[in-house]
Amino acid sequence: MRVILSTAPARYWQTTNFMLTNFPPLALASCAAAISPPHEVMIVDNAKHRLRSHNLFNHVKNFGADVVAFTNNFYPDSLIIQEVSRQLKEAFPGLITVVGGQAPSFLPEEYIESGLDYVVLYEAEETFAELMEFLAGRGDKSVDQIEGIAWRDEDGQAVVNPRRALLQDFDPMKMPRRDLLPHYPSITRRGYPSTAIETVRGCPYHCKFCTRPTYWGKHRDYSNDRILEEFALIKRQGFKEVMFTDDMMATDHAKMYALCEELIRRNLQISFGGALRADTAARHPELIAIMRRAGLFFVNVGFESYSRKALKDMNKASTIDINKKASETLRRNGVLILGSHVYGAPGQTDEDLALITRDGMEHCDFFRMNMYTPQVGSALFYEMTREGRMPSRNPEMFNQFEYLFDDGRDPEDMKWGFVKRQLQYYFHPSILKHAIRNKTPKDRVIRRAYLSAAMFTGYRSLRKVGIEIM
């Protein structure tokens, strides 16, 4: 069968991700490896679009696709995926549509009822491979025997099969089909490509606003032997930069230390970055030092807040002092810091909200802020649903710009405060100079942040007057 694996059609809220260094859709490359051969696969990354949502109709026609499968982690993307799936099925009778990722795993009935044919629940590789064999007429299981899928019965009702057991050994998995991914330019080496790697699934922590604990389940590591084999392949393929897609790098400090020692010994150093907890950097400076020697140049740290009460209410398991010490350790080692922050969390006073911009600029090279949002699948989402405090189930309201809490604070005031503090960052002279200069990796990421902010504002403004580009 001929299969297109696609990211969600582009929407204006996705433009805020353009500031991040490169994270190609590695999950699609892993799924491609799981089914090819025998199936022929094409990967479409719609994030590359700027003035349109997608070009899937031409791709389906030219490739002769039998199946289009979407990945959907961010709940606001669900409506456009459902809409485009219906349009594709109308234009190409017989086309089979599939969706996987976080949002459909938590709400599979919603997607089946919208018209999609199948939902792949949670970890996709084994489930998707079995589903493709069933669709090709070669599988030894009927649809109701495939663990980890949702489907539609003869009466049009959604059926959710039992969840598949978690993978425990990643070593036998095929290497991701990076040859099918579009070009992602390196931030550190102009003119060269960047890619991504996964070394961990899941996170051992339980931040209240995060979906990872409920999606991935138990925290599981790839073996260092497998990781080293993949690093060697990445270098042979000509990549000059790697981004870890792990929910959190270095949760096993000794394992990461040993990996970096071996990368250095085998001359496999390469510029790399990813997400890192503040307490890992604060409490293990020797680990940061050897990671830097192995190629670490960039980390995304969830500082979230500089309010003790807010950090406690978020179940963040961190402190203000840890945030500050982490920043000091990382900067001492020459590692660039993208500081992620939460705006509007319970316990954040007006004074605390003002501190986010001030202290965030002090402790970060790049400043990122999201509205505190009950993302579908998070402990916060289930708590608010259970208590009847969810003001809306419109997926587009979960785009991390809307304020969804009924706590006495005016939602419009909260949104204006959010915008105002973003502007304080973007118009600060020390930030503007980097965007204008555009020579170093730091300059290039900040310049990209300006582009993403301008695109978000422009697309959102056009949408308000009835002009929808994406």
Q: Which secondary structure elements does this structure contain, and how are they paired or packed?
A:
Elements (H helix, E strand, L loop, with lengths): L1 E5 L19 H10 L4 E5 L11 H8 L3 E5 L6 H14 L4 E5 L1 H5 L1 H7 L3 E3 L4 H11 L13 E4 L5 E3 L33 E4 L2 E2 L10 H5 L3 E2 L2 H13 L4 E4 L8 H13 L5 E5 L2 H6 L1 H10 L1 E9 L3 H6 L6 H13 L3 E8 L6 H14 L2 E6 L7 H8 L24 H16 L2 H9 L3 H24 L6
Parallel strand pairs: 1-2, 1-3, 3-4, 4-5, 8-11, 11-12, 12-13, 13-14, 14-15
Antiparallel strand pairs: 5-6, 6-7, 9-10
Helix pairs in contact: 1-6, 8-9, 9-11, 14-16, 17-18
Biggest sheet, spatial arrangement of strands? 2-1-3-4-5-6-7
- Please identify, by name, the CATH architecture of the largest domain: Alpha-Beta Barrel
Beta strand %: 5-15%
Give the distance, in angstroms, between the N- and C-terminal Cα atoms. 30 Å
Task: Let me know the average pLDDT.
Answer: 90
How many structural units, i.e. domains?
A: 2
Low-confidence stretches: none
Key words describing this protein structure:
470 residues, six-stranded parallel beta sheet, alpha/beta, Rossmann fold, TIM Barrel, single chain
